[in-house]
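BUG: 3D viewer hangs when loading the predicted structure for this chain

Environment: internal workstation, default settings.
Expected: structure renders.
Actual: progress bar stalls at 90%.

Input used:
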Amino acid sequence: MKKRIVLTGGPGGGKTTAIDLLRREFSTQIVVVPESATMLFSGGIERNDSPSLIKAQQQAIYNLQKHLEHIQRTKHPDRLMLCDRGSLDGLAYWPDNPDEFFKYLNTDLNTELAQYDAVIFFETAAKSGQSIHSNNPVRNESDNQAIILDDKLQAVWSQHPNFNLVKSSESFIQKVMFGINTIQDVMKGYQ
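Structure tokens produced before the viewer hung:
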């Protein structure tokens, strides 16, 4: 079975741009799992500050992520899977302690980390003083919120044994190219 790589990081990190370029270049070798949160929030579910609603939304995002990965793996068993975010991203948005996240979703950190063969983490552009505003209408985080989310996500995903960091850079093009090169290097190890 082909491997599964998660691309994650804070808002405005360049993940979507990198995935779009990779999809064009390697369309017959990879399959992309789209970002669950974007699908949910662009489908009519509104963001909310209520802890109970945040938990319900994160549960829906987690379950959608798992199902999308299963669908893509079943449909394309011979392709490398690139996931636009992974099952642990919800921890950055979880309103309570992480142990409750795992209990609520009936899983644990090691089980979720083991689902992925590699993690490529695109650090938010806000960390190098750049704006994170994008064309994604469901992204509503401020630059400061993006940095906080990035730190939370990095604390979680850096525990993966094959964690690859794509640092923020003043040049978005150079950063995305470095990210694509990192992805290609990881892909070579699984072909």
